[in-house]
């Protein structure tokens, strides 16, 4: 059985929403589906670049300012 999804309130500017909506339409997705797809791809890319998300996702990563 698939893991239940969390509901997250999200506020976007009208301009950003319109851009995502147009992109979603091009990709035959809903706006919600497009946002989920984009976030998933960003996390995948971050992991690919060797920068893993912390175990506790609500804790900001420590910055190395050397």
Keywords:
single chain; 66 residues; mainly alpha
Q: How many helical elements?
A: 2
Strand content: under 5%
Which parts are unreliable, with pLDDT below 50 for 5 consecutive residues or more?
none
Mean pLDDT: 83
Name the overall outline.
extended
* Terminal residue distance: 45 Å
The secondary structure category is mainly alpha
- Specify the biggest β-sheet: none
Q: Helix share of residues? A: 40-55%
Number of strands: 0
Supply Rg: 15 Å
Order of helices and strands: HH
Describe the fold and architecture:
- With 66 residues, the chain is mostly helical.
- The chain has two helices and no strands.
- It has helices at residues 14-26, 31-48.
- The protein is extended and about 35 Å long.
- The relative contact order is 0.08.
- InterPro entries: Arc_rbn_hlx_hlx (IPR013321), Ribbon_hlx_hlx (IPR010985).
- This is PTS ascorbate transporter subunit IIC.
- Residues 52-66 have a biased composition (Basic and acidic residues).
Please outline the helices and strands.
Blueprint: H1 14-26, H2 31-48
Short structural summary:
This protein is mostly helical and 66 residues long. It contains 2 helices and no strands.
